[in-house]
Each structure stands twice: as C-alpha cells, then as structure tokens.
Amino acid sequence: MKRKQISALSATGAIGLLLSLPGAVSAEDYYQKTKGYRVEPEPDPPSYVRNLSKTQFEQFRDVDWLDVGLDFRSRYEYRENDYRPTGSKFKNDPDNLWLLRTRAYIGIHDILDPFRFVVEAQDSRSYNSLYPKTNSDVNEFDLIQGYGELYFDNALGHNRPLSIRAGRQSLELLDRRLIGNNQFRNTTNNFEGYRVRFGKKQNNWDLDTFALQPVDRIMNEFDQPDEDTWIYGAVLSIKQWSEFVTIQPYFLGRKVDGDPKNLIVANRKADMDIYAPGLRVYGVIPDTAFDYDTDINKQFGRFGKLDATKPSGEVLQQHDAIAYSLELGYTFDHDWKPRASAYYGYGSGDKRSGDSYNQRFDAFYGFNQPWSRNDYFSWDNIHAPKARLEFSPYKGVQIDTGYNAYWMASDGGGWNRGGLTGVNGKTFLGHEFDIRLRHKLNAYVDWSLSYARFTPGDYTTSQNGVKQSATATGTPFTNEPSNFFYFEVSLNAFGDGKPKYH
C-alpha cells in the first residue's frame, strides 16, 4: 500500500485496511526501541512514574489500577561564554546556575474503565544566575498534564484499544526532533486539546492522531494555551516486521491565526499555515550488528513575517523547506556493550530574507539535545555531521562521548539559537566535543555529570563585537570557545519499580 494514499482513504476504510494485516489481533508485543542516540520517545506514563503495585510499599501490591510518581531533580550548571542570548541580551560573563525541578503524577486506569484520568504537576525554579530568568528554567507550581480519557480495551480487536483523550497533556512523537517534551530542560513542553489513538505501541500497527494548542509557559502565573495556534497531525507506526524495521509515515501541521495589527506591539503575531508530511524508518540490519534511524520531512504552505510598513501589518511568504537525518550505529561484541555511531543531519535555511519565499525549516517543538549538548542548535539551517561512542563499563554506569561539527545550510539564514544574523558568505559555525557519565546509585537515586566545549568557526568569530540588531543589548562575544559543565542528581520517591519483596 502506498503511504501517500492513506490521506485519501476514509478513517473507517483506513482502519479496516490496517486491521487486515497479518497478526492484527495478536497480543504479541511488536514494539522495538530505537538504538539511535537520545531519540527514543519518553514512555506514557513518564519514565519516573511507577505502578503502585510495584513500589516499596508491600501493602499496596494489589493496587495495580493506580500509577504514582514523585521526582526531584537538582542540577548545577557552569557556563562560560554561553552563546545563547536571553532575548536581545548576550551572555558574555561566566554563569553559575542552580536548577530545581519537582514533578508529581497520579493516574487512574482499569478500575473505572472506560474512564481514565491523569494529573501531573511540576514546579521549576532557578537560582544564582547573572542573567534574567526565562521560562526555559522557571515555571512555578503548574499543571503539566490534566486530562480525561475514554479507553475501550478491545474496540479494534483483541488487545487493540481505542483511546480518546481531552485536556492538557504532554507527548513525544517519532524521534523527538519535531515534537518533544524536552526532559533535559528545566521546564516542559505541553499542549491542550485532543488526542485519539487507534491501537497501542505494542500492537503490530497503531495510529496516533491529535489536534492541540501549545501551552504558553508563564513563569509565575498559571500557564495558558495559545488560542491562536494549533498543531495537528497523525503518526502511523507499522511494526509488523519490527524485529528488523519500524516504518512511520506521518503528517504534521501548524496553523497560526495571526494578529499582526494588535494595538499592543508585543502581542502581534503573523499568520502561518505549514504542512509537513514525513517518513521515519528505524531498525537493525539483519544478521549484522548494525542499526539505523532515519527521518525525512518536507514542509510547504505559507509563512508570515510582521512588517509594520504593509497595510496588513505582515508579509506572507511561500514556505518551502526540507530536513532529513540519518544515524548508522554498530554495537561491538564486548562486555561493555560499546556502540559507535555516525550521524548526519540537515535542515534547510532561508536563502534571502527579503524575497517572497521562506526556506527555513520549522522545527516545531523539538528536543535539541541530540543536536548539541550545549543546546546551541535545532533542526533548521544546519549541516551537522557527528561521531559518537557509547559504552557501559560497570553495571549501572553509562558513558557517552561525541564530536560534532556545524555549518549553516544557507549563509543568508543566520544562526537562530546563537542570535547571530550577519551575512558575509561564511557558513562554518564551529565544532563541539562532549562527554557524559550517568550512574544509577540505587533504586532511588541517579546522578550524572557532563562537560561540553564548543569551538567557534569562521562565521561565528566574524560576528564577534558586531551588533546584531537595533534593539540588541551589547554585542556577542564569539571569538573564544564556550565551556559547559553540569552535575545533576535525581531522586525518585517510589524507587525503580523493582521492589525486593517480589
């Protein structure tokens, strides 16, 4: 069946066709995780959540209808020559930052079926920074998830459910490069709206559909949905042959009902309609130790830019962008389980800012850590080859290290996350070395530490001391390397889900 024909089928016809696949009503678990570096989606419920029957509280071992979670994370960060500006202010001085995050989760399932409920709250704070606080670090006492669910266990056949969710929820899709809740960051991406899932990830296929509004993080007030913006789409995961390959054709869309002439300048926004079909494929090469994870996405539509000189208050451009990524890994036959991998990622950039086209790839709400430990890059205007090594020298200890290089795909597109906009024909942004150690100390405590060093390339150094905009506060300090170190401790009140009394 050609994937492009799915959109032409009625929902009933598509589901009927999928149900005709061999093994469609089997209870077998077809799901296989990717071996790609940091691109496995966060599970649902989140990884820190435990079923109460599998906690240290033996008196609750028969309570299998309640999921609970209580997690605290503290991280110290030292950043020197941080290239990421806060608004228009560049960070030229070393910073010592403390980040605290507390999460709590309750989920009720099975006992009241088909009705299910989830509530998740989070408190995120930062201390000791030289620079203004942002909603990337601070979001005090807020609701991350609060939704009701109708769950029909065998609606599509034996062990193949239909799930309908409504409310506030977080989610991660595909390889997290476009939709991710961003576990590393101190605050979380989340959305409000509707999600309908046909089947579950253990089935030989499932179809995940959604229509959601992104939630605006307000540091010291209750978060509110962006009522002018919708993201919507569907991900079909075909796992019939998942021992070797998982195939995920998908479609994402973003619609912004802009307000370019709002009387309050800060509230003005341009219209946007972006359509983004794509295909992700991952798995292993049979009879070898090689694995792979690849994704390609094509975007088209219209992209608005605010322009006060126009009667409409904006200029609408034709959006035409593409991005792709490919990771190839090899796992050696050794007690340390070493895995070496090579990666290449590309995201198109805008070629000329003054024309009627926008070629910068829209990274939606993606997770940036797979691109850069420093969090300097996302899936737009980038060429990014990488090499990485991962291994586990002792039980509970994991180490990974990598070397990454970065070029702009278009010299006219600038470096968004670095706040650099100058155009001079140069494209080499720089290269980065990183290393990370993670250790599971016991069932309740995990800790990790990491170091990353970014060395600027010719484009980056050429922008040193150059004012990037009329409103910029100061100029970038980009002719010296940046250093990033962190030490992190996570505590889980309910352990690792492997109580000793079992």
Structural write-up:
Helices cover 3% and strands 46% of the residues. It contains two helices and 21 strands. The protein has an 18-stranded antiparallel β-barrel. It is globular, with a radius of gyration of 23 Å. The N and C termini lie far apart (46 Å).
Give a brief description.
The protein is mainly beta and 502 residues long.
Notable features of this structure?
18-stranded antiparallel β-barrel, 2 helices, disordered N terminus
Please, how many helices? 2
Largest sheet: 18 strands, antiparallel, barrel
**What's the SSE pattern?**
HEEEEEEEEEEEEEEEEEEEEHE
Regions with little confidence, pLDDT below 50 for 5+ residues? 1-11
Task: Give the beta-strand count.
Answer: 21
Share in β-strands: over 45%
Shape: globular
First CA to last CA: what distance? Answer: 46 Å
**Main structural class:** mainly beta
Rg, rounded, reads: 23 Å
Roughly what percent helix? under 10%
The overall pLDDT average reads 91
Layout: helices, strands, pairs:
Layout (H helix, E strand, L loop, with lengths): L10 H9 L30 E2 L14 E15 L14 E14 L6 E13 L11 E14 L9 E8 L21 E8 L6 E12 L7 E2 L3 E10 L6 E12 L15 E13 L5 E17 L7 E18 L7 E9 L9 E2 L23 E13 L2 E11 L20 E13 L4 E12 L1 H5 L19 E11 L10
Parallel strand pairs: 14-16
Antiparallel strand pairs: 1-2, 2-3, 2-21, 3-4, 4-5, 5-6, 6-7, 7-8, 8-9, 8-10, 10-11, 11-12, 12-13, 13-14, 14-15, 15-17, 17-18, 18-19, 19-20, 20-21
